[in-house]
Amino acid sequence: MKLQTLSSSMLENLEPMLNESIYHFLAEFHKGRTDFSELSSIFFRLIQTMTDPPFEFIWFYSAITFQTAKSSATTDPQKLLLSVKDLFHSLISFRNPSDGSYLKQVSLVAPILYHLVNFKFEISTSKTETKGLVDAVDEIISHIIMCCNGDLVEQEVRVGKSTVNWVCLVPVWIADQVRQNEGCVDGFRLFFPLSTEDIRRRIHGDCGVDYLAAVVMIEVFLFRLCLMFDSGGSEMDLHKNVKSCAAQIILGFKRNSSFLVMLFKLLLEPCLPIGELLATPDELILRRILYDVALDFGLFLSCDTSSDVQYKEIVILWLLVTNSALQFASENGDHVRVSCYLSAFSSSQLPRQIISWVTGVTIMKPTVPDISSPKDIIGWLLVLEQQGLKICDHNISELHEKTLKYNSTGKDNGVKDAQTMVEDAPVSINGRRKRNSTGFWEVQKHIKVIKCYHENLGDDGFCGKTEVGNSVSDQEMVDMVR
């Protein structure tokens, strides 16, 4: 069999065939047909003739093959998990040694996360099934880290322009769920269950695999951490293990700057997209651990693996996350963490870098703010942004608006002018929406849980080696972060 590398013209000739096959599969599947072995055979033979099969062809062949097998498979949890693992190995087997894009290799496994999260929702909490799920997720993480740290060069996946893209294949992967729900589903929400609305909203017809790779990395990161809450053991061990795992994964994934952007933006949201996996007290504990890791990571953040523009975006997000972390700690009466976070902030070179960037691109020579807390720098940037200065592609005022919390009546305090925006931001976090979407989380009910958890851990279970220093009073904490 003669192998061939697809040229742009050859790929364009094959696109109508793929589009028609997608339409045919969806139409027939929703009529109740379950056997598509003939169609999968055609695409298997086609893929075998290619040295570097296009991403969309790999996904379509894998999806219809998996759907056919799943339709006739038993409902035994272990066998279902085994079939998903087989799908994973099948997808990564398409890697071509000459393919220089690690993004493609990471993006290919997106359907595995979708199926594993569904598996978690459906299975019991037996130790055997949970361990099998953890092993499967760890294998994906190892694959991604290997891709991110190999000698692969980031580049476009396909040669030439193609009108077919991975977004068009999502309905094929979720076809069984759509049929079960009689078409009444949000496709992206179903396929990306651990992503925020903001992440899903940015998915569009020509969304590349670079974005998909970052989404895969965010979801597997969150999923792995959530699974650790099922492990049992003491609260102190849980905290240490989750923090260690989170730090290791971030270090392994940090080559993808889009992953870091998504991670920091995730921590600006009023709640993490894990509501169906963790109870509210555990969700708050995980958020606190992620703040710890984010603050530690700021001490080592560099532009080694990012462009100058991407690096600036990440640093600005880190600044906003630091302010959110201080608000969160203050709200929970965590005096030691406030001191720890402020110490980590002042120990970082990033605040000085931000000031250097600003003063280097403007002739206004603005008064340099105090760099002992993030709120002063944020307020300074907001004023300058109103005057037309931009140091990154992010709209800082829009990002900061996410960090403004809701007052106790459940009404948004609104965005004030840039000079008072930071100073008057409310301290309490009441922006978490109830899972039944009928109102706002009453987070104060869970503060005692956090306080008890903190007392059990002691003061040295977070923030790495940062010196804590003297504790501060409640009023001092409020003044520092509001």
List the helices and strands and how they pair.
Layout: H1 8-30, H2 37-48, H3 55-71, H4 77-92, H5 102-107, H6 110-122, H7 127-149, H8 170-173, H9 175-180, H10 187-191, H11 197-201, H12 209-227, H13 235-253, H14 257-266, H15 280-297, H16 308-331, H17 335-347, H18 350-361, H19 374-386, H20 396-403, H21 418-421, H22 444-457, H23 474-481
Helix pairs in contact: 2-3, 3-4, 4-6, 4-7, 6-7, 7-12, 12-14, 13-15, 14-16, 15-16, 15-22, 16-17, 16-19, 16-20, 16-23
Please identify the oligomeric state.
single chain
Strand content: under 5%
The average pLDDT score comes to: 76
Q: Given the C-alpha coordinates, what overall shape results?
A: globular
Q: Give the radius of gyration.
A: 24 Å
Helix content bin:
55-70%
Order of helices and strands: HHHHHHHHHHHHHHHHHHHHHHH
Low-confidence stretches: 151-164, 406-482
Number of strands: 0
Derived structural class: mainly alpha
Give the N-terminus to C-terminus distance in angstroms. 68 Å
* Largest beta-sheet details: none
The number of helices is 23
Describe the structure.
The protein has a domain at 297-482. The protein has helices at residues 8-30, 37-48, 55-71, 77-92, 102-107, 110-122, 127-149, 170-173, 175-180, 187-191, 197-201, 209-227, 235-253, 257-266, 280-297, 308-331, 335-347, 350-361, 374-386, 396-403, 418-421, 444-457, 474-481. It is built from 23 helices and no strands. Helix 16 runs antiparallel to helix 17. 61% of the residues lie in helices and 0% in strands.
